[in-house]
Design a protein that fits this description.
alpha/beta; Spore Coat Polysaccharide Biosynthesis Protein SpsA, Chain A; 8-stranded mixed beta sheet; 15 helices; 55% helix; 11% strand; elongated
Length: 424
C-alpha cells in the first residue's frame, strides 16, 4: 500500500511536469532569444511632439532628478511638454516643478477617485479640453530617471509606426539588499526575457508600469486614459493586445527606477500587482479567447496572454505539492518502519534542492544577461541576491493566496528617496 502511494505520486508528478514543460516551450524560446542583442530601430525621419505625464503625489524627494534628466535629453526640447500631477498646491513638489521650463503643474480635482489610472485620465482629459495636440504621451513615475538618449530612442519606435513602446527598466538601487535585487529582477524577467523576444518576433508587449509611450490616437479612441485596474499597465497591455495595437520594446531606451528595500514594502507592492494582474486578466480573458479564434493578427501573443501564468504556476505548484506530500509520506513511513521510507526522503530532498537551485541558477542567468547593460551590481551582492532569490519567489505562494482572499486591495504609494546621475 505504502509503495503504491509513493509510485502513484511519482507518476502524477512527472505527468504534470511534462505538461508544464510543453506549455513553457514558448518561454524557453524567449529566454534563448534574450541571450542575443535586442531589436534595433532605424533613425527617425522626423521628430514628433510628446507630452510627458508624471503622477507625483508627495514626491519632492526624487522629482527633481527626473525633471533634470528630461531637460538633459538630446531630443528637441521644444517638442516636449511635461505635466506633473499632484493632489494639492501645498505639495512641496510644486515648488520644484516651477524651476523647469515647459513643465506644468496639474492639481487633481477628483481625489475620491484613487489610483494612478484615475490621475492619468484626469490630466489627459484636461489636455483634450485645452485643445493641445501631441503625437503621443510618455508616462513616468516620479522616481524614474532617463538616460540622455531615451526620448530619441523611443522616437525611433514611433517613427517606425508603433502606437505603443516601452524602454529598458534598469534599477537605481541594485545593491540595496536582497529585496531590492529580487524586485529589480522581476522587471528584468518581463522585459529582457519576454518583451525582447516579442519585439524581435513582432509580438505584443507587456508594459512594466512606467517608461512607455502610448499614441494619442489610441487615447482619443477610448476617450482618455481609461485603465483603472490596480495594475493599469497590465490592463493597458491587454487592451492593446485584443485590439491589435502595434507595440514594441526598445532595450536601448534606458531609464532607471527605484525598487523597495524592505520586505514589507515589497509585500504591499506585490499584493497590489497580483490582485491587479488577476483582475485585469479576468476582464479581458473572453476577448483574448475570441481574438485567438477569430483574429489573424497576434495569435501567438493572444495565446500567451490567455494562458497567462498557468504553465509556471503548474510547474511550481506541482513541485511544491510533491515536496510537501513526500515530506509527510516520509514521516509516516519512518514512523511505521516502512523499508522504502529512505527513498521517499530522498525524493523529497532531491526535489526541494532542485527547486532551490533552479531559482539560484535562473537568477545567475539573469545576472549574466543584465551585466551587458552595465547594471550597477557588485559581485558579492550578485552572489547573495542569487542565493536568496528562491526565498523571495517562494513568498509569492502565500502572497497570491492573501491577495485573492483579501476583501479590498487599494493602491498604496511607496516612499522614494534614491537619486542618481545617469551620465555617470
Amino acid at each position: 500500500m505504502y509503495f503504491n502511494i509513493f509510485h502513484t505520486a511519482n507518476v502524477v508528478f512527472y505527468v504534470l511536469l511534462g505538461i508544464s514543460a510543453v506549455l513553457m516551450l514558448q518561454k524557453v524560446v524567449h529566454h534563448i532569444i534574450a541571450m542575443f542583442p535586442g531589436k534595433k530601430f532605424a533613425d527617425a525621419k522626423k521628430d514628433y511632439k510628446y507630452a510627458i505625464l508624471i503622477p507625483a503625489r508627495n514626491e519632492s524627494a526624487v522629482i527633481d532628478n527626473l525633471l533634470k534628466s528630461i531637460q538633459e535629453q538630446d531630443y528637441n526640447s521644444e517638442l516636449l511638454e511635461t505635466y506633473v500631477v499632484v493632489e494639492s498646491d501645498d505639495d512641496p513638489t510644486c515648488e520644484i516643478v516651477k524651476r523647469y521650463p515647459r513643465t506644468n503643474i496639474f492639481v487633481r480635482k477628483h481625489l475620491e477617485l484613487k489610483g494612478k489610472g484615475h490621475a492619468l485620465d484626469e490630466v489627459v482629459q484636461d489636455i483634450f479640453v485645452s485643445g493641445k495636440k501631441y503625437d503621443a504621451y510618455f508616462i513616468f513615475d516620479a522616481d524614474n530617471v532617463l538616460t540622455p538618449s531615451f526620448i530619441t530612442e523611443m522616437n525611433k519606435c514611433y517613427d517606425a509606426g508603433y502606437q505603443m513602446a516601452n524602454g529598458y527598466r534598469n534599477s537605481k538601487n541594485w545593491n540595496s539588499g536582497w529585496v531590492a535585487f529580487a524586485s529589480a529582477f522581476t522587471m528584468s524577467m518581463i522585459n529582457t526575457c519576454n518583451n525582447k523576444a516579442r519585439a524581435k518576433c513582432n509580438g505584443c508587449m507587456t508594459v512594466s508600469g512606467t517608461g512607455f509611450y502610448i499614441a494619442s490616437e489610441v487615447l482619443e479612441k477610448v476617450g482618455g486614459y481609461k485603465f483603472f485596474e490596480l495594475t493599469e499597465d497590465v490592463e493597458l497591455s491587454l487592451y492593446c493586445t485584443v485590439n491589435n495595437i502595434k507595440s514594441t520594446y526598445n532595450e536601448y531606451a534606458i531609464y532607471f527606477d527605484e525598487h523597495p528595500v524592505t520586505f514589507k514594502q515589497a509585500w504591499t507592492q506585490r499584493v497590489r500587482w497580483v490582485r491587479g494582474h488577476w483582475s485585469a486578466h479576468n476582464k479581458y480573458r473572453k476577448q483574448l479567447f475570441a481574438g485567438l479564434v477569430k483574429d489573424k493578427q497576434h495569435k501567438l501573443s493572444k495565446y500567451e496572454y490567455f494562458i497567462d501564468i498557468f504553465p509556471i504556476a503548474l510547474l511550481l505548484g506541482s513541485s511544491i505539492a510533491y515536496c510537501l506530500f513526500m515530506f509527510i509520506l516520509a514521516i509516516i513511513g519512518s514512523a511505521n518502519g516502512e523499508p522504502i521510507a529512505y527513498k521517499v526522503w530522498r525524493a523529497f530532498t532531491s526535489e526541494a534542492l532542485s527547486i532551490y537551485f533552479f531559482f539560484v541558477l535562473y537568477a545567475a542567468y539573469m545576472v549574466i544577461l543584465e551585466r551587458r547593460k552595465k547594471i550597477n551590481l557588485t559581485f558579492w551582492r550578485a552572489v547573495w541576491g542569487c542565493l536568496t532569490f528562491p526565498a523571495f519567489m517562494a513568498t509569492y505562494i502565500p502572497l497570491a493566496i492573501y491577495a485573492v482572499l483579501k476583501r479590498k486591495v487599494e493602491w498604496t504609494p511607496i516612499v522614494h528617496n534614491v537619486n542618481i546621475d545617469t551620465k555617470k
